[in-house]
Amino acid sequence: NKYKIAVIPGDGIGKEVIEAALAVLDALASAGGSFVLDYEHFDWSSERFKTTGSYMPDSFLDVLQPKDAIFFGAVGDPTVPDHISLWSLLLPIRQRFQQYANVRPIRVLKGIKSPLADCKPGDLDWVIVRENSEGEYAGQGGRTHQELAIFSRHAIRRIFRFAFEVAEKRPRKLLTFVTKSNAQRSGMVLWDEVAYEVAKEYPHVTMDKMLVDAMTTRMVLRPESLDTIVATNLHADILSDLAAALAGSIGIAPTSNLDPTRRAPSMFEPVHGSAPDISGKGIANPIAAFWTAAEMLDWLGEKADAKLLMEAIESVCGRGILTKDLGGSANTAEVTDAVCTAIKES
Ligand code: NAI
Ligand code: MG
């Protein structure tokens, strides 16, 4: 099958890891993959902003709408305030396309050591579902320093339904919902209320509730007690960075911004940012971008190739070909070549 993909590498290591991921996707396609990707590249980035005054054209929705998916690197530049860069590129795409489900699978891959001492394979295997359209990142507020979080019944209900569907398809059928309804007494109380309402539609899924602060300790101390997790925009943002670190590095974690109705294209990106501290050195870990590519193929329906790509990634990690953030000494190109070779040999 043939798919139209918008490629937006963005800034910093976003450019490096997207280039690496395109090489891996090429290897997969030419090794008998059942898909063809028709790329269109966009230079939407901080560099474009500094020369033209905007990150992307006003017509970005029309430009992206006909695509089957968007493959995104990262945005952020030391010379541009982060709230400007994020709100000029990534957040408008997520929100205007109503990519309301941000899905962040994470697990300890073969060959990668978790910083948790007794973490056995399979102990940490989670899917974090993040509400991606409103909440604390609704973008409402003003220069008199209010920041308004928005929680609507409609948006809470749809993210819970989505999270239950994810949980239901996993062997353990366990959904933990994260809240802070003891301190945040309006929106978060509605969040809890809708959780129990929607739970009635999914009697085969076990649901439990955690306050976000206690959730951090449970993730560290009892990772095996968790499976699917649903949380607000802010809470899930923070918990998913913790999750990535517990699985070895922020450099491995993928994320999908999905419009489950499929009316708009969905967007796939690594969890990490542009990492200015290591950008330009060729040492960024490309695994997050590879795993992201696998998530994109899976969403497009190319499940066999997605699986093959994950197996190639794990075989390379299992052989100890790792970047510095994972305790190895390989650079981006070496990991990329190894994954391409593993694909060809599989
Ligand atoms: P970051 O994720 O860019 O970096 C955090 C730390 O992790 C750094 O020490 C970095 O070197 C390391 N790291 C990240 N990805 C890595 C990889 N693939 N391989 C090896 N090491 C990796 O987050 P930070 O430093 O908070 O933000 C830097 C810039 O990125 C900021 O401008 C921020 O706004 C932006 N950002 C953008 C995101 C996006 O586009 N989705 C997400 C997070 C941050
Ligand atoms: Mg984040």
From TrEMBL:
Q: What is its EC number?
A: 1.1.1.83
SMART domains, sorted? Iso_dh
Q: Which Pfam families match?
A: Iso_dh (PF00180)
User: Catalysed reaction(s)?
Assistant: (R)-malate + NAD(+) = pyruvate + CO2 + NADH
Q: Is rRNA-binding set as a keyword in this record?
A: no
Enumerate the GO terms in the molecular function aspect: D-malate dehydrogenase (decarboxylating) (NAD+) activity; magnesium ion binding; NAD binding
Which family does the similarity line name?
A: Belongs to the isocitrate and isopropylmalate dehydrogenases family.
Looking up NCBIfam families in the UniProt record yields:
TTC
Protein name, entry field:
D-malate dehydrogenase (decarboxylating)
Protein source organism? Bifiguratus adelaidae
